[in-house]
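Hi support team,

I submitted a single chain yesterday and got back a structure, but I'm not sure I'm reading the token output correctly. Could someone confirm the output below corresponds to the sequence I sent? I've pasted both exactly as they appear in my results page.

Thanks,
R.
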Amino acid sequence: QKGSKSRLNFSQVTASLGGFLWDLKYNVISFSVKVPGQPMVFVQGDWLDDSCKRVIEKANRGDKVIISDIKTKMVGSAVRGEAYSVMYEIQ
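Hi R., thanks for writing in. Yes, this is the structure output for that exact sequence:
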């Protein structure tokens, strides 16, 4: 994905199991955000918080922001898992 810092700052991190026979839903319970040259930020929940927004504001055009360590929980179940990392390039 590519886009502006402001678009990323108002993003919710979600997870899904595409192409699967059943429509299983997942909640993101935590994740981390890494901006080049900045410390990694760990977040509880599924929305970028103020600490994320502060490091994203320091990103430059062309920087690749990595959202990783995405922890999930299946809705209606105790099953937990991890989702693939996501890269977002600042335009």
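A quick pointer for reading it: The longest strand covers residues 64-74. Let us know if anything else looks off.

Best,
Support desk
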